[in-house]
Amino acid sequence: MSDGNDMNASNQNIWTQAAALAAKTPESRNRYVDFLRAVSIGAVVFGHWLMAAPYVDAGGVHISSMLEHQEWTRWMTWAFQVMPVFFLVGGYSNGISWASAQRHGKSYSEWLQVRLQRLAGPVLPLIVMWMFLAAGAQRMGVHPEMVKVASQMALIPIWFLAVYVAVVVLVPVSFAAWRRYGFWSFGVLVLAAVIDDLLFFAADLRVVGWLNYGFVWLAVHQLGYAWRDGYMAGARQGLTWVLGGTVLLVGLITLGPYPISMVSVPGQDVSNTLPPKIAMLALGIVQCGLLLSIESPMRRWLARAAPWTAVVLVNGMIMTVFLWHLTASTLAIGGALLLDDVGLRVIPGSGSWWAIRPVWLGVYVLALLPFALGFGRFERSGVGQRIYPAWRLVTAALLICAGLALLALGGVAGNGWLGLQTAVLLPFVGAVLAGVNPLRK
Predict the structure, then answer these.
(1) Would you say residue 301 lies in a domain?
(2) Distances in Å between the alpha carbon of 426 and those of 338, 401, 439?
(3) In a domain, 33, yes or no
(4) Fewer Cβ close by (within 10 Å): the C or N end of the chain?
(5) What are the phi and psi torsion angles at 317 (to 5°)?
(6) How many structural domains does the chain have?
(7) 376: pLDDT confidence band, cut at 50, 70 and 90?
(8) CB count, 10 Å around CB of 363?
(9) What is the pTM of this model?
């Protein structure tokens, strides 16, 4: 029989556990970084759920977005497309961790292996689940195209992870560039993104547009280094960035060929996201400047126990929430279809449709809870003792990136083994090469 202390420990709720962790936070930690990470991912989740507009009519099942039905909702993407904030936070955090590794004499391999474990570990269970779902559904007679669409919807979040892993691999180079050239290292990337867009639009070289996945997101990542070194601190500097970014953004969408929406709209020829354009970079500048202009009062607020405990609690499962939120909503929609299309026979954009949005959001939250609680442990998996050489880890990272990108674009269904596309193997091969093991404690 366990003693009273064991019983008390087992009865602790997650808030109490988060409060205990929060109390151990060193004074030197910038809590606003963690807050922005949680808020940015939360905004993405809420935006995806709010804009999803599946419905059923006489023509069958339609998977659509509110961005198609009501054009005014495209302005809302300026608030909900907050991936630039996550790359800003990434730059700040990676700058701190890489500088610390250098001070303590740690190798690039030691540093990168820890990062790959934390980034790739949580995504592998998601891919495994969709492999089983896709193979099982096709064995039961579900059309492969339906499986492909469902898995595409669910795996949209992993495009970000593919890009971010590549950005992490380049941290020693990007950090050295910042240390030596400062804002010039940011300016060169901005110029490269502008040239890339010119080739995309003026020369109709659409294939080169994919290079902006590097130029745009690395540029925002450089701003994270600038923030860490105090170059973007204070309301005056932050609002200066807001003003400059706003002028640029408004000019691009009114005088240039850039659409208003900051996420892809089905049927629209040009996307600011796929691949990213300088309009996305301008939005990122606005968002980063605005959020950093209020850093001081926010840090004072986060010094209080309750808000900081909430941040610690959310960040403990934030990657799981991000990776699984569309799987949860996809399965919830599938359940509604099985229950005689309940809640899906409402025309998107109508008053009734908006009126039941809170109900659907509640359903999505309930559907996500088992995944967040069940798979959150993979965010806290440990790293093995053996350190692999840098060439092997970089190769592993590239395989993980390629696999995640292909799955985000095409889903898991294909013509390969068990009706799956062969790209599902790439993240696992990369994980083996990097020594990533989600089950390790």
Answers:
(1) yes
(2) 33, 9, 19
(3) yes
(4) N
(5) -135, 20
(6) 1
(7) confident
(8) 19
(9) 0.90
